Amino acid sequence: MKDPKSDANDVGMYISREKIHPREVDGPFQRLRYLAVFVLLGIYYGIPWLQWDGRQAVLFDLPSRQFHIFALTFWPQDFVYLALLLIVAALSLFFFTALAGRLWCGYACPQTVWTEAFIWMERITEGNRQKRLKLDKSPWTREKLLRRGSKHLLWIVFALFTGFTFVGYFTPILELGQGLMQLSLGFWEWFWLLFYSLATWGNAGFLREQVCIYMCPYARFQSAMFDRNTLIISYDEERGEPRGGRARRVDPKAQGLGDCIDCNLCVQACPTGIDIREGLQYECIACAACIDACNGVMDKMEYPRGLIRYSTENAMAGKPARILRPRVLAYGVLLLAVLSGITYSLTQRIPLSVEVLADRNVVYREVDWETIENVYTVRILNKDREAHTYEISVDGLPGIEALVSDEPVRVSAASTDSVVVRVRVPRSALDGPGNPFQLTLQSTADPAVKTVNTARFNGPRE
Questions:
Q1: What is the average pLDDT score of the chain?
Q2: Does 309 share its domain with 359?
Q3: Do residues 353 and 381 touch, judged by C-beta distance below 8 A?
Q4: Of 349, 376, 397, which one is at a domain's C-terminal end?
Q5: Full-prediction pTM beyond 0.90?
Q6: Residues near 436 by Cβ (< 8 Å), separated by ≥ 6?
Q7: Residue 8 domain-assigned?
Q8: Which of 158, 235, 296, 450 has the greatest number of beta carbons closer than 10 A?
Q9: Which domain does 429 fall in, by range?
Q10: pLDDT of 1 higher than 50
Q11: How many structural domains is the chain composed of?
């Protein structure tokens, strides 16, 4: 039988979460964060309303398999650009992390951006940090119900607008708005609108820092990208310790104290609730709120700024620090190379795609003793926003000629069409069953719109 006294020695494996109410601070880093929030949210909510050449500027039209981004229209055949975009995102993450830690997390991560917006609404309805802490502990009264209710009302409206905007990237947002007013949206439009709204409300309103601490994998492997020359948020322990309270204008050295007055404002300002004075921790999202909070205290105490600052491990240890080093330069060069490649590819991109398919039913046909014929289906994808008439020509074998069933070959804007092409070659020009030749498709209105495909002409084995 278990001894009841042994319960006193039991150690719980989990602790209840204490809700974090970050203290509002002012400083250059926080102003930079606020600017990032305004710009990023402005881009997210504003872009779907922009019009370009008679259509929505950015629209991912899944039913039509067309992805419009301002002047560019991408098709499923262009998914290589999506792969390149993911490579750019990965290289950017590596570059900025090696250079200055978790800048992405502190300034541009959607979880950070929307959480900051939700905290602003919380401050508007419930007050500053002290008032929110007091409200949490107070019993349910009419005032508490009104404050909490107004907060969640703002959260829900903002989350619904977020979900509406998200769906607006896939369904024209003007049509989406009209359908929403008439309650005539389709099942999947309702589903994603409500799902994304619920995800925003839950992640930014309730989970907050738990997403960064427990759910985000980046927090776990970020240290693999750090080295002793990475700029990280650091506490100058040699200058700050031993910490302790003291009167203003008192020489801390005379009392055997460091510059840290142990006010805990750096902890109160941290959105993940860590104490940076205990060293860099994986929960730190590099928002630099602790730097602004500490600098404000240093100003009031008339101490030098920088007790908490961006620095490197080498610099904190009194060793030379190198910001530009092989790892950073390698990431930067690779990132620049991929971006240059994407830019060049887009500028040289031809709004035309062609697929040549040989007839599988009849490998070849003898027109007469001197001539062999193959039949091909040419699938033409016109990626341009205007119709084109194309000329088809063949080359690469002596005496080769093409007979097109439909003259002229005209394909409407942003659409596909197929045309049957019969290719004839003299028997004497063939060497075995597989003879490569080139099929060229060129716009009659714009000679630059041209593509050349290599196909194989089948003949008899002799």
A1: 92
A2: no
A3: yes
A4: 349
A5: no
A6: 396, 454, 455, 456, 457
A7: no
A8: 235
A9: 352-457
A10: no
A11: 2
